[in-house]
Amino acid sequence: MKRLLLPLLLAAGLQAANWKDRAEYDLVLDARGEAAPQKRIALLDQWKSKYPESEFQQPRRELYLASYQSLGDSAKMLAVAREMLAAQPDSPVGTYWCALLAPETREASADLLAAAEKAAGQLLAGQKQPELEFLSHRTLGWVQWQRKQYPAAEEEFQKCLELDPASAEISAWMGTVLTLEAKPEKYVPALWHLARASAFADPGALPESQRRQIGTVLERLYTSYHGEPGGLAELKKAAVGAPFPPAGFALESVAVIAARKQDEELGRTDPQLAAWVRMRRQLDSAEGEKYFAESLIGKPLPRLRGSLVRLTPPEKPNELTIAIADLSAPEITLKFATPFPNAAEVGSILEFEGTIESFARSPFGITVTSEAGKISGWPEPPAKRRR
Amino acid sequence: MRLASLLLFAALLPALCAQEGKRVALIIGQNAYTLSPLKNGINDARAMDNALKSAGFETFKLENARRADMERMLGQFLDRIGPDDTALFFYAGHGVQIQNENFLVPVDFTPSESLVGAKLACLSVAQIFEELKRKRAKRNIVILDACRSNPVANKYSLEAGLAQPQDLGKDFFIAFSTGAGQVATDNQSGHNSWFTEALSDFISQPTLTIELNEVFTRVKRRVSDATEGKQNPATFSSLTTDFYFHKRSDAEVESDPTLAEKWLDDARRREQRREWDAAIDLRNRVLGKKPGGTLEEAARARLDYLIARRDAQERFEHGDYATAAGLFEKAVKLDSFAADAALQGVNSYLLHDHIPEAVALLNAIRVRGTSEAARQADGMLKALVPISQEAGKVLQAGIPQPPPIEEVFSGSHFGAPDVDGGKRRLQTAPVDISRWTKELQMEIAIPAPIVSVTSTNTAAAGSPEAPAALGTAAPPDRSATVFHVEVVPTAETRDLRLRPGTPEQFGYVQFDGAEADTPVVFEGRQTPLSDRLRLNAGKYEIRTVKEGKVLSRQEVKVDPLTTTAIPVKAQ
């Protein structure tokens, strides 16, 4: 990498720069001989203060950068990198460190996000090296994350993990943004990534303390998703083996478990309603139309019970709108060739059957042809007065 | 056998002594001062309590402590401290310096006429120090977030802020939330003081495996930034051991990719102190780790130079000037800016009567050394002129321009990022995301129970009975005994029911605010409170009833096709 970037150094014209005077050179030699980074920074400060217009401002910034690097002071390193970019927008050193260190910032300003995004974009547009590509996507994903653009962040982290599947840090970030998306369909992959971040122990793993920390979060999220911690160990074991969940990987949510239990209960207590619920779920699925065409159209509707929501027309109706389980969302329209001679009260409970005719997805509804003889619960017409 | 055991025990003794003992903390937070109450003292104490517990401290916490409480708790705290332990004292509240001595102000402080009285009413920091010294803990950490403007200082026209500690004693670390004599703010708009907010945050991060001094360096930076330089925490240390709130495991230390980098930094410091053997050893350790890249290159690049310097020095000290001169010359060839090696080489050549070689080295110093070194070389050359024509020529030629910066820092590759260093940073300092993860939630909507619209009352199909309530799973009738809500139709509604309903003549009532299983009774049937109740439009009376007694009544109008929310408070 360094060798490849050396032509840039030459392009920057560093070779042509000159010392202002011998005293400037003396200051630089002093800084060169100082091994303690804090003291070296003090010497660099002297150089900067006495020679603010030095022809070696960018090398001086690099020396600052290296000194702060020795101190592990990423905030100062980032500040220097941004200074380098301000002086030379295509500075390879400034670009690299700005992209790498921006995610360490605690409170990222819009300005920093823009700078980090630009730096990552420049890295990406430069030489095609997996390491630099990884770094770029890491930064771009982080930027989108901070902007709460979670799907965009997810895309970038996906690329990162494709480039470096062993990056447990990115697995942790991915799990976090997927959870932050707050979409139930993202929760299982989120748990997978967090499980990997907490359990992966090969090179690329997070430090032990951070793994423990993610592990605690994972346990809490897993339990709230699944209802209990059973199966978490298996999830971790599986996630250690692959950076992404395999196709079709699923974990039962508390909602699915509750629905299953409900279905079982409903199957016992109200088989008619249970049959309808199953049918309704199939119709609501992405394959609803196909299911309807292949399995329902023209077939008899099992006998169901529902509440009368609307009569059309209100007197002597030939069309009844029925709600099965939710009065605010009628689901079945019964059509009759012959109108009823009288009306029933809205809210009446009717049992009915008929032949399934059509299906609409939104608003949901199926139309069923029926006849008066197949309806029970309809009131008797008032007796005619005899003269 | 017994002797062997004793020997084994003796061998283990130093290791046992080196063990870390308990971590014990006394935390005091004060708000409720009569004269000048504070807002954040207690919050600060609680934040530190949580943070220190996360770092393995056993804590004693006092809030709004009176003088007697402080002394009592201090006694309990001291009783827990043993020789291998780390004792930490944290105080957030008013503090004052009286005659250059620091005092902590209890909440029951009442101003007296004399300074002596004031001293007696407060707790002396020096007293705490003395007590801690007596316990001989392995280390003592005293943190005082007490440098706020305060009533005691005002009353006696004393200097605000705390005084710098005079006699720290061994193994003490003291931190003030601001510099000696300065006054810190209570951060009225925040939940914690600036200082404690930063400190507790850093201590709470288990991934922040940095030494105590580094923790406080970061605290100082954050507080200074937050207050735009108005508040600058100060620390004083006589600790002889490192302390980590969160320490990395041995395995982590061993596999730390920055270990080689740290050795190399240490090697540079040793070299600067002319500890050649140590510097060589550290560089060899770096090479032994095979870090590759620029790090390995840097470690290897200087190794030959260091060996030449070490050997040259050794030969020189043995009076073997001929060999020493050659080795110094070799060192200068390996690092042409090593002016001190060149000077030593000059000395060796002169002592060995090799004048031309000495002159050449002096010339090299003039070209590449500092102005001071060049002047020194000039002086030596002038002294050599009588015996060396070459020295005269060198002097006449003058001093050329110093070499370019790339030559000065020949291993630095200006303009090219240190990608290896970046990789090491990525590996060893993953971004701490706990501030995001601790808030993460997975909201799962549990499906509402699916129940038939029919109920026991409506099973008699065909009857235009009362409207069906959703979710009427007909729980057992508890309405006679437990708290429940009754919905009673008014005369108007009852009249309506006599007429056949039209599609738009019903609405819903949704009860909010009580437990989900509070029964709602309508027309003698129960439904859970969480469900909506479908009612014919009209007026109703909502009654809360317990054990047959009506506790409250509320009239509600149900409009067609709308939902009316009724707040219910469980009794």
What would you say this structure looks like, in words?
- The complex is a heterodimer of chains A (387) and B (571).
- Chain A is built from 16 helices and 5 strands.
- With 387 residues, chain A is of the alpha+beta class.
- Chain A has a 5-stranded mixed β-barrel.
- The radius of gyration of chain A is 35 Å and the shape is elongated.
- In chain B, helix 11 runs antiparallel to helix 13 (303-317) and helix 17 (371-384) packs antiparallel against helix 18 (389-397).
- Chain B starts with a helix and ends with a strand.
- Chains A and B meet through helix 1, helix 2, helix 4, helix 6 and helix 8 of A and helix 10, helix 19, helix 20 and helix 21 of B.
Instruction: Tell me what portion of residues of chain A adopts beta-strand conformation.
Output: 5-15%
Let me know the number of strands of chain A: 5
Measured between the Cα atoms of the first and last residue of chain A, the distance is 109 Å
User: Poorly predicted ranges of chain B (pLDDT <50, ≥5 residues)?
Assistant: 1-18, 454-481, 491-504
Helix content of chain B: 40-55%
Number of strands of chain B: 17
Largest β-sheet summary of chain B: 6 strands, mixed
> What's the N-to-C terminus distance of chain B?
76 Å
Strand order of the largest sheet of chain A: 1-2-3-5-4
Write the H/E string of chain A, N to C: HHHHHHHHHHHHHHHHEEEEE
Number of helices of chain A: 16
Largest sheet of chain A: 5 strands, mixed, barrel
